[in-house]
Structures are given as C-alpha cells and as structure tokens.
C-alpha cells in the first residue's frame, strides 16, 4: 500500500474575480454554490469524499477514522490536522500561504495532513500530528521502528514572508533558535524575512523523520507559463480563494 496525494492550484474549476478559478474554501467569502461546484469537480478525482476541517491556526488533530470526530454539530470539526489508517479515506487541508504538511510511514499504513502556518508550527501542530500517527501504528500492531517521510507543500516563500519580532521569538522559546531561518529585513526596521518551509523542515527532522521533501513553491510569487498567478495567496491579495492538498492511502 502506498500514499496518493496532490495539491490543487488556481486552475481547473469555475469562479469569478477575485476567486477565479478553483476556490475550494467555503470560509473565504466566495459564493457557496460556486465553491460546492468546485468541490464536486475535485470529488471526481478522488476515491471518496474528503474529510474537511474548519481550520483555526491551532494544533488540534482529529482521527478521521472516527466518525464522531469528523463532524461537530453537523459541520466540519475545528482542527488543523487529521490522520488515518484506512485505505481510500481522503484527508484535506486548505491553504493560501500557510503550508500543508503530509507525514506517512514507509509502509503506507498511516498518514496525516496538517495545515501549518507560523502559529501552528510554533504551537506544535506537527508534533501533535506525529504523536497521533505513532498511536495509530501501535493500534495496528506496528509499534516497531520504521522510517518516516514527509512532504511540505506550497507556501509563502522566504523572500515574501515578512514578520515581526514576536514571530521570531515564538520559535526560540523551545530552545531552538532557528539560526538562519530568520533574516533581518533590510527594507524595514524591526522586521524579518522568515523561511516558513525551513521552520517546518527543522521541526520534522527533530521528530526523527528521515526523509523530508519540500515543494519550494511560493504561493505569493509563482506564476504559470503565461504569467498568471499560479496559487491563491492571502498575503498578496487579502480577498482570495484556497487551494487544497488531498492525501489518502491506497
């Protein structure tokens, strides 16, 4: 068994400015009927309905194999990560500058997907998700040593991600100064340029995940061959849609 996954872009669906053309986020201010149409188009590419989350920049992780955790009062649960060990169960993460991070064991027996902006990373969303994955492997009787792999999806790049001192300090409170991942911004006093993907990679490596792949796509600056915006970016446009990262075992 393996891991199947992909990340959407702005292309492939329906919509009008500023959400053209494949907005999948219901909370972005777009017309709900248009978003549902795009989700129907997406569903045709998947083995099952995705497990959507109501993302809040926190560290809560749900077990997508537990139906009670997949809905709260008939709506998507307030969480920023989910895990599964069931083949064909599709995990979904919405982003528009924050990172999507996928972690799986080398046997393809468990997989998790997280929405990871700077708040989630600093708070420990990746560590929380990894802990859930370890517990699910134990339930499966796979508590022995294994190799882990992770993928870091498109997100705001280091050149575009300007932050204040509060963000830099948030990553130094756990004893990891993250040297080199924050660079003084020469344009504005008291500001820094932060490598969000680098911060995620460092945390993954500290968890003992041996293989980490980075897409290194920048949601703010990357363009298609004809010069169009490739990804949705909240930092760039403010009013914009959301891409989705989808992952499942199979």
Automatic annotation (TrEMBL):
InterPro entries: Cu_polyphenol_OxRdtase, Cu_polyphenol_OxRdtase_sf, Cytotoxic_necrot_fac-like_cat. One of its GO terms (molecular function) is S-methyl-5-thioadenosine phosphorylase activity. Keywords: Hydrolase, Metal-binding, Transferase, Zinc. It catalyses: inosine + phosphate = alpha-D-ribose 1-phosphate + hypoxanthine; adenosine + phosphate = alpha-D-ribose 1-phosphate + adenine; S-methyl-5'-thioadenosine + phosphate = 5-(methylsulfanyl)-alpha-D-ribose 1-phosphate + adenine; adenosine + H2O + H(+) = inosine + NH4(+). The keyword DNA damage does not apply. It holds the Pfam family Cu-oxidase_4. Belongs to the purine nucleoside phosphorylase YfiH/LACC1 family. This is Purine nucleoside phosphorylase. It comes from Zwartia hollandica. The lineage of its organism: Bacteria, Pseudomonadati, Pseudomonadota, Betaproteobacteria, Burkholderiales.
